[in-house]
Amino acid sequence: MRPRTKIPTQALLLGSFLLFLLASTFSLVAQDQEKVELKIQLPKPMFIGTPRNIKTPNLEPVTGRPRGPFYVPKGTELVSLKKPVTSSDPQPVIGELSYVTDGEKSGEDGYFVELGPGPQWVQIDLKAPYLIQAIVVWHYHSQPRVYRDVVVQVSEDKDFVNGVVTLFNNDHDNTLGLGAGRDKEYIETYEGKLIDGKGTRARYVRLWSNGNTANDMNHYVEVEVYGLPAK
Amino acid sequence: MRKKAFAYLFVLVLAAALFVRLYRLDLRPMHHDEANQAYKFGQLLEKGQYRYDPSDHHGPTLYYFSLPFAWLSGQKTYAELTEGTLRGVTVFFGLLTLLVLLAAGRYLSSSEKFWAAVFLALSPPLIYFNRFYIQESLFVAFGLAFVIFLWRFFQKPDYKEAAWLGISAGLLYATKETSLIVLATSVLALAVVWSLSWAKSRKRSSHKSESGSSQKKVLTKIKKVALPLALAILLFLAVSFVFYSSFFQQPQGFLDSFRAFSNYGQKAMEPGWHRHGFWYYFSLLFYHKGRGHSPVFSEIPFLLLALAGVVLSFARMSRKNAENFRGYLALFSLLTALVYSAIPYKTPWNMLIFYAGFLILAGIGFVYVLELIKIRQAKIILAGALFFWTGWQAYLVNFYFHSYPDNPYVYAQTSPDFLRLVARVDELSQVAAEGKNMFIRVIAPPDETWPLPWYLRKYTQVGYWTSNEQVESLEPAALVIMSAAEASRRSEKELEPYVTQYYSLRPDVLMVLLIRQDLWENYRLMRIGGPSGTNGL
Question: Which of A52, A148, A176, A195 to mutate to test the interface with B (most CBs of B within 10 A)?
Answer without folding.
Answer: A52
